[in-house]
Amino acid sequence: MRLILLWILNAVALLAVTYLLPSIQVASFGSALLAALLLGLVNTLLRPVLLLLTLPVTLLTLGLFIFVINGLMFWLAGSMIEGFVVSGFWPGVFGSMLYSVISWALSSLLVSGKN
To answer: Averaged over 90-94, what is the pLDDT?
Structure first.
């Protein structure tokens, strides 16, 4: 049940990002649910491999290259789903940062509301 609630909160976070960044668009709540699911899968399966492959560049940039990887993963999810549009690389980077912050805040509300 907690996993489903986190999935819904991530979809809400994605909808919040679309209101704050006009270059990212989500057609409906169903599209946001699908995009949140795809983002979770991409970040679970593909992101660790990319982090390992780009470890030298990440070390040279003192970890800043991770923002590039996150933006590319966000942009990739936007290109794979019909109702989720990320209009470029930089909107993907800023959208992924904003999505992470909003998702973290909503998840922490869930944890603090449990106590």
So the answer is: 95
